[in-house]
Automatic annotation (TrEMBL):
Superkingdom of the organism of origin: Bacteria
Protein's UniProt name: ThuA-like domain-containing protein
Domain ThuA-like per the UniProt entry, residue ranges: 2-168
Entries under Pfam families matching the protein: ThuA
Provenance organism: Phytohabitans rumicis
Amino acid sequence: MSTTRDTLDDPAQTALRQYIRGGGGFVGIHNAFGTEYNWEWYEGLLGGANYYDHGRNQPGTVVTMGGRDVSTAGLPARWDFTDEWYNLVPFPSRVRILAKVDESTLPEGPTGGSGHPGHGRNHPVSWCQYYDGGRSWVTTLGHAVEAWTDTPMTGDGYFLRHVLGGIESAMGHSPFCQ
């Protein structure tokens, strides 16, 4: 969760691969996308996506893509949240998108300092996939400390419910990637 750059040495990378190949579950949160840039297998674990840029922390509306998955069950169709809305390159592939941000609700728009134009009508923020024998549930959300603490923040309860469902399903305690 929110790691940066190369954090795993060769033995740790091997252990993570073996764990996933043995049917293990992975949950990547927020800056998990800013980690292990030069490791193709890890990028695959993230759905083939990598962090490109983001604008400033700003409010936006998260759109829940159905309520069948345990991580989206009980969430409203739309809920407000504040975050750094990551732009990704490449775009996630062969994944089930669970939530996206409605870019039209971002006051400053989706673009970051590097000029990425955003993802338009399909700007994913959470998805899941079966990968290399295991399970991977990831979200680009989770930047603000308030989302994780008792300090009130709009949408934090929905966010935490979403993450908890992702953790439970990646662990195999609930049906995965429904």
